[in-house]
Write a structure and sequence with these properties.
37% helix, Spore Coat Polysaccharide Biosynthesis Protein SpsA, Chain A, alpha/beta, globular, seven-stranded mixed beta sheet
């Protein structure tokens, strides 16, 4: 089996080597323990937004496969990465060392053993106050509350009936899920779009607590601008889902029709 870790980057030279090494060490240990009977082929795919600080070269030196994606956007990087990933299972992490990439091998095992389709990390469970600004925490609470109200009729399949962290970018999922979800967002709203699509399409969905760390380097998010855009997207998305009863389900990402790339 092959697993691809997709990491979008933009000027993450101080941290990208650390992220890749942390993941590689955990993957090597997992192949000797969790996957001893059938070792996994672990691929690291870095989708770099034409960084100017040498991020791509550092990632390549650490053994990652690098794709340069000049079209800007968090979601655009992931859509490009998902189309190019070679693994039957795909995991994700930012390149700023905030997410616990060392837990990915264990979460892949959980995904397989418990027959889960989509697993997402909940940053709020053990949140270090230094890892997220006050504005960012408030914005997350507002967006999470909106998701719970707007999509409550679909959350029955989620453990506890709640999605605690709609903005998390730490996921592990089966590649086959891409044949069911409709992905359109190039910006930060992609994170909530992917989760909502997985839930609406009936994927076996699980949210797990993770430790979210303080990022290496200055933040790139604009809490209020990105928060407002995400809230507007969620409103549109709720109406689009409601209209599907008349229009039918939209084209899935895995068809290749909407992303312009061959899976």
């Amino acid at each position: 089996m092959r697993v691809t870790l997709v990491v979008p980057t933009l000027n993450e030279a101080p941290s990208i080597a650390h992220v890749i090494r942390l993941f590689r060490t955990a993957a090597t240990e997992a192949n000797a323990t969790l996957y001893a009977a059938d070792p996994v082929e672990w691929e690291v795919l870095v989708v770099d937004g034409a960084s100017t600080d040498g991020t791509a070269a550092i990632a390549e030196a650490e053994g990652a496969r690098v794709i340069i994606e000049r079209r800007r956007g968090y979601g655009r990087a992931y859509r490009t990465g998902f189309a190019a990933a070679r693994g039957e299972v795909i995991a994700t992490s930012d390149g700023d060392a905030t997410y616990p990439v060392e837990t990915v091998p264990g979460l892949v095992r959980k995904l397989l053993d418990e027959k889960i389709d989509f697993l997402t990390g909940n940053r709020m469970a053990y949140l270090d106050r230094t890892a997220m600004t006050t504005e960012h925490r408030i914005g997350n609470r507002v967006l999470n509350s909106f998701v719970r109200v707007a999509f409550h009729s679909y959350l029955g399949g989620v453990a506890g009936g709640l999605l605690e962290d709609s903005q998390s970018g730490f996921w592990v999922f089966r590649r086959s899920l891409l044949d069911r979800v409709h992905l359109t967002q190039d910006g930060m709203a992609f994170s909530e779009e992917l989760k909502i699509e997985a839930i609406v399409r009936g994927a076996r969905f699980l949210e797990v607590p993770i430790r979210y760390r303080e990022r290496w380097g200055p933040p790139k998010l604009s809490s209020w601008r990105d928060g407002v855009q995400n809230l507007l997207f969620l409103s549109r998305k709720r109406f689009e889902v409601a209209r599907e009863s008349h229009r039918g389900a939209p084209v899935a990402f895995g068809s290749g029709a909407e992303n312009g790339l061959s899976p």
